[in-house]
Specification:
The complex is a heterodimer of chains A (about 200) and B (about 70). Chain A is built from eight helices and no strands. Chain A is mostly helical. Chain A has one domain. By secondary structure, chain B is mainly α. Chain B has one domain. The chains are: A mainly alpha (about 200), B mainly alpha (about 70). Chains A and B meet through α2 and α7 of A and α1 and α2 of B.
């Protein structure tokens, strides 16, 4: 006999209902693969600059070493920021607990501004009109902070609330009363095992 | 080792990389960027480190799940 500790909607709901119930676990795992892959690129780029001492224009991470144009492509950066924003928004209803929802929503809010910054860069790249009289597309925070450090910063302050939210999603506190709709929580796996 | 501690350790390893890169970054930017840019870089890298430490405290402070 198998007992589940979550209230899945089954196979009859809409796409958004299913992605936040019986598909939430696989959707979250897929999203994390994309996010961690992106992180590896940033980690490698900063390692190349700070530790290996490579000149900033030559520090292109891993994929950028093979496809240099990707690093300078505003479309790629904007596309990733948009994917992040949409995924954070689409997967949010699956975070039913109070604390996990709060942290995930914080990540969504910060990513919204991060996406706005990339949208500004994308608009400048498309229009050929750079803001602030700069010779290249420039975001608001880039007026003060160099791009490499700024993107390390943005990615960190979005990802940290995400991992705290995910932690609470995987291991809901004992005080949490909301019933999860998905199979992500660790206790649901042990409960769901045949007994 | 429990699954909870395994997840905690994985998250700790990740935030450890962020902390290490931020520390090296603050040192590097102070030597290779103009003073105003270096100060801005140090500020954002410092905030990043603070976020990472807060995350570590939160995930390790918990007393277990239901």
């Amino acid at each position: 006999m198998a007992v589940t500790a979550h209230a899945a909607v089954g196979s009859s709901g809409s796409f958004m209902e299913r992605v936040n119930s019986d598909w939430h676990e696989i959707a979250m795992r897929s999203f994390m693969v994309v996010v961690l892959g992106h992180w590896m690129e940033h980690f490698l780029q900063t390692f190349q600059i700070y530790v290996l001492g490579w000149p900033v224009p030559q520090a292109r991470g891993m994929i950028g070493m093979v496809f240099p144009s990707l690093v300078t492509s505003e479309v790629l950066h904007y596309g990733y920021a948009l994917v992040m924003l949409l995924a954070l928004w689409a997967l949010r209803p699956g975070f039913t607990g109070k604390q996990e929802r709060w942290w995930w929503t914080l990540a969504l809010g910060i990513q919204f501004f991060h996406h706005f910054e990339h949208a500004l860069l994308q608009w400048q790249a498309l229009s050929g009109h750079n803001l602030f009289g700069r010779p290249m597309p420039t975001s608001i925070a880039q007026l003060w902070v160099p791009r490499v450090e700024l993107h390390l910063f943005y990615n960190t302050i979005v990802f940290v609330p995400m991992i705290v939210g995910m932690y609470y999603h995987l291991f809901p506190p004992e005080t949490e009363t909301a019933r999860p709709q998905c199979s992500c929580a660790w206790h649901s796996r042990s409960v769901a095992s045949p007994v | 080792m429990t699954a909870q501690n395994a997840i905690r350790l994985a998250m700790t390893a990740f935030t450890g990389i962020v902390l290490a890169l931020s520390a090296v970054g603050i040192r590097w930017t102070s030597q290779h960027q103009p003073p105003a840019s270096a100060a801005a870089s140090a500020a954002v890298l410092g905030i990043s480190s603070t976020f990472a430490i807060v995350a570590l405290v939160i995930i390790w402070r918990g007393t277990g799940s239901r």
